[in-house]
Design goal:
With 328 residues, this protein is mainly alpha-helical. The protein has one domain. It contains 13 helices and two strands, in the order H-H-H-H-H-H-E-H-H-H-H-H-E-H-H.
Length: 328
């Protein structure tokens, strides 16, 4: 009897969702890789406003295609999972109700404020690093305009997609089994952790086949656990992403929507991508870690800037009567 009730529980359905996401990611990754390289070989995006995406497809290694495959798999599975979890309800909820989202009366305002606050703070930090000589301009054939457009396109795509997956779909699923305060920290922790589910950077992939995705999953788990033995990793890399997850989670639960989080997320990605293209670090890793890293995504200073941004968002939103941790 207990066994039967477990296989009908929300926890079991969440585990099925996570396992299915991993399996589909392994299946989709080679297909996306072959498709992306085929688009580059055919030159379909060259000379268009999507040329920045063409460059990303060309430079992208199998690991990046696997990451995108994981997001795609989660998006495809979230709707049937939520329907499965709500199948006993007589009324069929809308997408917003599925995700526990509310209408936002100022979506574009929240999007733009979030983008300029997050992006501006990181660009100012990057300018400070350059003025101190810690970062130096790097040689690039791209114009400033093309760099900014490419970074903007990537930032908006990542912001929309990851916020929909983490603060939308995944939060809706886990809300079935967790109280809001615990959910807040779990989603932030999972958001940080999932960014380190990748294989070693120097891993040789070789020829990509249909089975490469499953082989890659094995290498991911091996590398994932080894990273947590490095104290620099915890202080300089994990801390930044966890802080970002906390800020984005607060905006989702305080506003009841994703728009402000999308803007913040896109702004941070824009700042990182822009500075990574235009500059390079002028120090050895061991010299400045855990304070500074190879990009604005790493380092305790970046963690401090993200945290201060979160404090500013909290001060701005605290007039709202909505309790972010109220139980529905």
């Amino acid at each position: 009897m207990a066994r039967a009730s477990f296989f009908q529980s929300s926890l079991w359905k969440i585990l099925v969702f996570l396992f299915g996401t991993v399996v589909l990611s392994a299946i989709f990754a080679p297909l996306l890789y072959w498709g992306g390289k085929h688009v580059v070989a055919q030159g379909w995006l060259e000379g268009t406003f999507l040329e920045g995406i063409n460059g990303s497809l060309d430079r992208g290694k199998f690991s990046r295609y696997f990451n995108r495959a994981a997001l795609l798999a989660a998006l495809l599975l979230i709707s049937p999972t939520l329907k499965w979890m709500n199948r006993d309800k007589s009324k069929r909820p809308s997408v917003g109700e599925f995700l526990g989202l509310e209408s936002n009366s100022h979506p574009w305002r929240h999007l733009l404020i979030g983008f300029f606050v997050a992006g501006g703070s990181l660009l100012l930090l990057g300018w400070f690093y350059v003025s101190r000589g810690w970062y130096v301009p790097s040689e690039t054939e791209k114009t400033i305009a093309s760099v900014l457009l490419s970074a903007l396109g990537t930032a908006l795509a990542v912001g929309f997609l990851e916020e929909f997956v983490f603060r939308g779909a995944l939060q809706a699923v886990l809300a079935k089994v967790m109280k809001p305060r615990m959910l807040y920290f779990v989603i932030a922790f999972f958001f940080a952790v999932i960014h380190f589910f990748n294989a070693p950077r120097k891993l040789e992939i070789g020829e990509v086949t249909f089975g490469t995705g499953f082989w890659f999953v094995g290498r991911i788990f091996e590398h994932f656990f080894s990273q947590f033995a490095d104290p620099y990793f915890l202080a300089a890399e994990f801390a930044v992403l966890f802080a970002i997850g906390l800020v984005l989670g607060y905006t989702r639960m305080k506003t009841g929507s994703l728009w402000l989080g999308i803007g913040l997320h896109a702004g941070w990605v824009f700042g990182v991508k822009t500075l990574s293209t235009l500059t390079t670090r002028a120090f050895e890793r061991a010299e400045m870690m855990p304070w500074l890293g190879g990009s604005l995504r790493f380092g305790l200073v970046s963690c401090l800037v993200v945290s201060l941004t979160g404090v500013g968002i909290w001060l701005w939103l605290r007039r709202s009567p909505r309790d972010p941790f109220a139980e529905s």
